[in-house]
Amino acid sequence: MRSRAAKFVGIFCAFCAVLGLCAPASAAQPITLSQMLELATKSNPQLGVAAARVDVAAGVLREAASLLYPRVDASLGAAWLEDVPLWPAIDPLTRRTIAVVPAAFRNTYSAGLKLSQVLYAGGSLVVTRQAAQYGLDVVRTEQLRAWQSVRFGVCDAFYTLQRALAQRGVAEEGLSLSQEHLKQTQSMFDAGLVPLNDVLRLKVDVSNARMSLIRTESAIQVAWSVLESSVGKILPPNEYGFPVSGDLRTLFPARAPVSDDLQAVEAQAMAHRPELRATSRLYKQAMAVERAEKGAALPQVAFQAGLDSMDDSFFPRNDWEWSAAVRMDLRVWDAGEVSARVAQAKAVAREVLYRYDDLVLQIHQDVAVAEAQLRSAVSRFAVCEAQVRFAQEDYRIALRRYETQVGTNIDVLDARMGLIDSKSQYVDALYDIAIETERVLFAIGNTPSEVPPGMIAPIGPPKEAAVQKPE
Q: Cα 285 from chain centroid?
């Protein structure tokens, strides 16, 4: 009896194990835009590069600041000689050697402590620290712009994937309508109501619909790969699923309405674009470098003090001897080295001014193009909404006329093509609004409130006045 019960329990456990192995894996949760942005903050290599550059600039600043403070060096040494060096002791009257005395220890141990401080360097150390601070400010603003670029890339890729999914739905609808019409026409042909030409033409139409669906599947895979590149991480299919496609108006708020006042939008860009702040700091850095190079031609004054001891045992226990010294160095002639460096710094400053002018023109172009494309998308969407309603009604009428033998098959094919094309344009306009909205925000420069936690905020208050051109 026990053996039968044990056998039954074993069979039951094996059956449960088989059910467990055959159970379907848990479906991946659809991704969201906020989820992808958070993942990009942690995984995108561009942000890692920007953060590393900030660390490098911070190290340069600490190095420049350390030159203003005293330096303390400690030394410890030992020397071992095979023979003790001897010095003769000479009688000053007879000029004869009367004794031999050791000149040093056979085993010599020494210890020392030295302090050095720059007293005056023509102001070069102070302005060098200022230049390093400006350099840190530059890379911080570049880090912010890198995040804005990554953010726009993720949004663009995410909405492009959404668009591809929506276009697949349109293609599936087109294939379904074609197959349904082919089935109906085949029945009418079997009844002798329509010619064979109608059936053959519909079979070609079904094949075209299938090819359109294949192209949308390929577009989805390409968009998924672009999203992975924008995020900076391969997205495992068992963890992440395609986003849920739907009416985009329910997926995101309208944060950048179309504006007819282009100058006001440009003023916002001039106040928020990190590149303008970076250019201003670059100019100040170049001027600081120029002052530092000029300071190198002025007198350099330094102070040194030290304590030294020497003995034949470790650690030296003899009396410590102190010393102090002040030294001034002045370069009399350097074959034009300092003047050449000053000229280089001035040239860099002039280059920054030209870059500023070019950047202003680029911002004007970015804002104008983004606003124009957004206005175009909004206008196209308003037209497409009405166009889809008209195309649906036209297809319904054409199909009904064909069923009653009043219309032709060509009328139905044209109406269905117009309907599918209208819905495809509706999808394009809908997702163009999303992408161009993000493009406008990118052209203006995202506000500091959109910077993720841990990212260094830009320099200056969030709504500071537009950055003026350096003079």
A: 24
Q: Which of 298, 349, 328 is nearest to 126 (CA)?
A: 298
Residue type, 292: A
- Which residue, chain included where needed, has tokens 């530092």? 292
Contacts of 325 (CB under 8 A, 6+ apart): 303, 304, 305
Give me the chain's average pLDDT, please. 82
331 Cβ contact list (under 8 Å, min separation 6): 296, 297, 338
As a whole number of angstroms, the distance between CA 461 and CA 459 comes to: 7
Contact (Cβ atoms closer than 8 angstroms) between residue 118 and residue 67: yes
pLDDT at 25 over 50: no
C-alpha to C-alpha distance for 362 and 231, rounded to whole angstroms:
26
Strand partners, 108: 79
Contact present, 316 and 111 (Cβ < 8 Å) = yes
Element (DSSP H or E) covering residue 324 = strand 321-329
Separation CA 264–CA 270 (nearest Å): 10
CA distance linking residue 469 with residue 361, whole number of Å: 13
Would the pLDDT of 28 be above 80? no
464 has pLDDT over 90: no
What is d(CA 256, CA 264) in angstroms, rounded to the nearest whole number? 13
Helix-strand-coil split of the chain, %, nearest 5: 65, 15, 25
Cβ-contact 193, 406 below 8 angstroms: no
3-state secondary structure 34-96: HHHHHHHHHHCHHHHHHHHHHHHHHHHHHHHHHCCCCEEEEEEEEEECCCCCEEEEECCCCCC
H-only helix segments in 306-463: 337-403, 409-444
Distance from C-alpha of 291 to C-alpha of 246, rounded to nearest angstrom = 60
**Dihedral of the alpha carbons of 114, 120, 124, 129, in degrees to the nearest 10:** 60
pLDDT at 105: 72
Give the predicted TM-score (pTM) of the model: 0.79
